[in-house]
Amino acid sequence: MTEALFRDDSYRRDCEAVVVAVGDGGIVLDRTVFYAAGGGQPGDTGVLRGADGKIATIVDCVHNRTTGDIVHVAAEDASPLSVGDHVTAEIDWERRHRLMRMHSCLHLLCAVVPGAVTGGSVGDGKGRLDFDLPDATLDKAQIERDINNLIADDRPLRANWISDEDLAAQPDLVRTMSVKPPTGTGRVRVIAVDGVDLQPCGGTHVRTTGEIGHVRVGKIEKKGKHNRRVNVHLVEPSSDARQPA
């Protein structure tokens, strides 16, 4: 199974790796900094640079559900790579950082809007969550104020691991109705926003809420009898990412 370096360091932008498989679906490395699509967050893009000058442009990154490997989907005109090639894997950092900021922002949205989450999507500079709130009237201006206040607090975010048993004993940690966190390996990754939110999540996040930057709440839409969709946008499309400590 591919070693997922982004699990422990979301700020790592590149790594040295070896090609272990090449197929119609894409390229598998022994280790990678590329996030594979999951949990509403899209896969990373970037390049794989071979020692011989070959460059494979990566347009998506996904999981092989059978093997658990991370598959790097190359552009049609990418230079061919072979098993055994040594490469440098480099993500599109500016895009990744915007996704990190938005994913962390959606955890704050979970904290300020009551109700179970029925769906969601992390986008490049925008995102949304759907809530099971059949009778609620949501105040868009208040939600925006509450999120931006939490951002201004510059609260730390931390990734930790808990056991499957701990998760089973705390069912309220799971906010999503449609997607359950993967269990069976003995542990589950959780993201804590200091004093605000704690829930299972395998995505990439910023270190503090202040790094998200100012956001605005867009449309609040009614999606069927029960669902209320809240759309959120980054006001600044890019920001200076804090360097690893």
What does this structure look like?
This protein folds into 2 domains: 3-91, Elongation Factor Tu (Ef-tu), domain 3 (Beta Barrel), CATH 2.40.30; 96-234, Threonyl-trna Synthetase, Chain A, domain 2 (Threonyl-tRNA Synthetase, Chain A, domain 2, 2-Layer Sandwich). Helix content is 16%, strand content 37%. The chain contains 3 helices and 15 strands. It has helices spanning 93-112, 140-152, 164-169, and strands at 3-4, 14-23, 26-29, 31-32, 46-50, 55-63, 70-74, 86-91, 117-122, 126-132, 157-163, 187-193, 197-200, 215-223, 227-234. 36% of the residues are buried.
| Overall pLDDT score | 90
CATH architecture of the largest domain: 2-Layer Sandwich
Low-confidence stretches: none
Number of domains: 2
The shape, in one word, is elongated
Strand order of the largest sheet: 2-3-7-6-5-8
Give the count of helical stretches.
3
Strands, total number? 15
CATH-level-4 superfamily name of the largest domain: Threonyl-trna Synthetase, Chain A, domain 2
Biggest sheet architecture: 6 strands, antiparallel, barrel
Q: What value does the Rg take, in angstroms?
A: 19 Å
Q: What structural category characterises the helix and strand content?
A: alpha+beta
Residue fraction in strands = 35-45%
Q: Spell out the helices and strands N to C.
A: EEEEEEEEHEEHEHEEEE
The fold-level CATH name of the largest domain is Threonyl-tRNA Synthetase, Chain A, domain 2
Percent helix:
10-25%
The termini sit apart by 28 Å
